[in-house]
Amino acid sequence: MSLKPGLPHFFSQAVIDFLEKNESDFITLWQEQIILDQADVHKEKVKENGYLMYALIKNTLLDTVTEDDVQQLAYKVAKERVEANINIGDFVYNVNLGRSLLIKFVLQSDVSRTQLAAIIDQINTQFDQFCYHAVTKYTEIKNTELEEKKLFINQTHKDKLAILGQMSSSFVHEFRNPLTSIIGFNKLLRTEYPNIKYLDIIELELDQLKFRITQFLHTSKLDFIENPKEIVILNDLLDEILNFLYPSIVDSDVQISTDIDPTIKIEAHKDEIKQVFLNVLFNSIDAVIQREKPRIIHLTCYLDAKRVVIEVSNNGPMIPLEVQETIFEPFYTTKELGTGIGLFVCRKIIEKHLGELTCFSDEHKTTFCIHLPI
């Protein structure tokens, strides 16, 4: 079935005869003006497809073209444009250039303007149909490619996490038992010989090492230990964490201020939430030591509607906008010796608690914001 009823044959034939008489000039002019990227693997086919479109228009004027004919050519061109990986805008420009030149040539024929108006309308309709099918197919193919890439990336992340989970299990067996023994004997020494220097520092360092090992374990979903939730008073928990971090705070000459509502409580897995606060504060300390004094970290905790909001702000370097979401991806790190799993684990824990962890950064401060249900 044709796209639209044809014109009287002798008018259409007169235009076709005129086009064929001037075909060489028309094709040459179009090829001289088109955009053709030298990196285009199908650059020769661009010219070939232009001629095919020209032939399709001639057959349209004879009313011998179906929509399937237009669609097939459009799909062929769309596939080649995707393979060439060239800006689709170049393709649209070249098509419309061909349309404009073709209409200019048609207007020079001996056919009356009244009859030419209908012929030009037919030409425009065909070009519109062709562009629609080509761009639609191009977008469809591109979207499919993007989905396949996303699936590949997600699967790669899962594979990495699975491998890391296996590594973590081995890591635990190799290090947790001797570490537990050392922590235990250190406590005995503090009990039996309370005057020995540095035992408290050793205990703090061992606790930090234990924390790092636990952090590694949390990269595997299977390693979240489902202990019962408990009621946690955030003020008490954050005081405990700041006491634990005291040596790092003093050593880095960081000023920490707090504004915490002492009445706020949450129901949570305490060890997991503690790990989140520790990691965010560790990152904040690492950030502020990159700048001159004063090095400032501010910790705020308040209620907002039916949520608890905890904000950890620091005056370290700005995190670029394009990185502010990427930092939560597994294995992404800006630290020379970083693993890229800390913030990924933190977000995973907060989401497990039906909360949200976000980051905002500008030239004045960087804020990590945690939302949790009351």
UniProtKB/TrEMBL annotation:
Q: Which Pfam families match?
A: HATPase_c, HisK_N, HisKA
Q: State the Gene Ontology terms under molecular function.
A: ATP binding; phosphorelay sensor kinase activity
Enzyme Commission code(s) on record: 2.7.13.3
Sequence ranges assigned to domain Histidine kinase in this UniProt record: 170-374
Keyword line: ATP-binding, Kinase, Nucleotide-binding, Phosphoprotein, Transferase, Two-component regulatory system
The source's superkingdom equals: Bacteria
Reactions this protein catalyses: ATP + protein L-histidine = ADP + protein N-phospho-L-histidine
Question: Which class of enzymes does this protein belong to?
Answer: transferase
Provide the protein name.
histidine kinase
Q: Give the taxonomic lineage as stored in the record.
A: Bacteria, Bacillati, Bacillota, Bacilli, Bacillales
